[in-house]
Amino acid sequence: MAHWQFRPLNPNETSGSSISDDNFADEERTSVEILVRETLQNPLDARSSDGVVRVEYKLATLRLADSEFAKSIFSDNWVKHFQAGELIDNGERPAIVTFLVVEDFGTTGLEGCYTDSSYEGSSENWNAFWFREGEGAKTTKSNGGAGQGKITLYLASKLRSVFALTKRKSDGEELLFGCCRFKRNYRLAGDVRRWAKEARWGAISDPNDLAVPISDKAILSNVKAELGLARSGLAGTTFIVPLPMDDITEVALRNAVVNEFFFAISRGRLVVKVGEYVLDASSISSIADEMGEQCRLDKSFRGFLLSAAGRVGDLATATAKSSWNKEAKLTASSFEDVELNLLKERFASSELVIVDFKLSIKRKLAKDVSVASFRVFLQQDESSDNSQELFVRQDLGIDGEKRLKAARTVANVKALTFIQDAALSDLLVAAEEPTHRNWNARRPKVLALYQSPSDVLNAVRNAALRLVQLISPEGKKDETALAIYFADPAAEKPAASGGRGEVPDKQRGDQKALGDIPKPKPKPIELRLLDDGFEVRAKSSDDFLFPIECEVTLAYATAVGDAFKLWDAADFWIGDQHLYKRSLSGITQLETSLNRMNFLLNTDAASLSVSGFDKNRQLEIRIKYKEVSDGADYEDN
Fold first, then answer.
1. Which residues contact 499 (CB under 8 A, 6 or more apart)?
2. What is the model's pTM?
3. Domain ranges of the chain
4. Which of 108, 187, 248, 258 minimizes the number of CB atoms within 10 Å of its CB?
5. 341 vs 324: CA distance, rounded Å
6. Average pLDDT taken over every residue of the chain
């Protein structure tokens, strides 16, 4: 029998709202991408061996009248508390219940003690997941350690509830448990008591007793059958999210998997099934191609990552000497002469080069210094519009770290910084922000555990940049840069052409009358230059339907060459809102990259203005736009 366990607070307990939600509220990712990143990171953490981890996503729909599992969730007691907690508007139960089901295989399941919530330790995953916040119980090969990513599962449910059926590798036990996390503490009508934010679902109804999971085989078999689970007898965990948010669709899930875990899938470490689609090393590339512009990684960078994935186990092109990190820049003395010459030769010919770097890591409580290593893959790409890079640690992409924008190179480059070393990974885990997209050397955990963690972080962050600066071909002097300003004294003077008298009239045929010149087709946008910026404003037009998708590319004018191709990060960085202030109305899906802005004009009254540019330089602006409805492209120069 299943029960909700709602608990009144002790008078001395603190009330308030959950703060974990805020850690994921200001990301440059959709809620589905955040959910996928967290639900795939966790099974990668808990892989039972060094083999492949397999995860399945699907949406299952049940009729409430026919489902014992759904009925056990929507009990009479549930209605009263969920109304008071502002998760439902009325007491009506849904006739049809949809569940998001996430199953992982090749993992350990939720290990640890489930009969005492005070147990702590690196293997106490049960208590860490259900009874901890702000800390994890993860091993040295982990991708995370903040213990906050699980909140994304709750945020994915309109009921802020999650259920899990886990098969544990250690003892073979199969357990079913659930929990709801209300937005804040609440009160029932006519009751002055405050109730806890967490309500747990399991085998015990008395809130004075520890909530424990359901292990009844009949109930577990019934849940598997109703939801069509593939769990069978394999170790791992199935997460069940009731009434998922409307934006959680199988297409959105599939696209998010490709965007967030392309490299891990490419190298055969992860296989994901979404609905009927299987994303593995053999299919991931073609599925990414089908996504078109919805794939965040462009085709050339995907090709680079595929090459790197196939050469993870290869010997390095060169290995940096142990003293490489003692100076701010890499120098020729950082490598053996033969290796450095080989690096420059292969890089100049646009071949993929691989360089291994070593670092010293010192824990505060350890006597010895450990030596860790990481690898940088690098390739020159003259056809690319910009340099691109990615950091991958233990199969998890860290894409918020951008360092190559500071590179001054003749051609653009692609870089992958690959960290597999357990000791270095542990330090980076401790320095990671809860979103797993950036590192921060001032995080309390990394400061408490390590000596000089900022030195290690800076070394990892800047290794690819330093390598590019060392081995890039030197730029050639442009002898014609000022040619338009000066005459060539050695050039012959052009011959003067004099008059030739009267020019006879030429016989011409009958002249046809010119027709009316067609009026120019009105544009749905208007561009206005400001003293230190620009403004894009939508205009009403019967020839266009809103929303309009816009792309604005910016550069300072140059005397010679294409200003947009010659843009440099030293000129301006449009993503810096502190220097380049924005004012917007009716604008959504605003994204910035380098010198480019993408956004939607949702109505004919929408507008976007950006200021803060150098008033003494001419700002060049290129706008491309298209209707979202039909994808027709237009360009306004």
1. none
2. 0.70
3. 3-9+17-248, 308-471, 525-636
4. 187
5. 17
6. 85
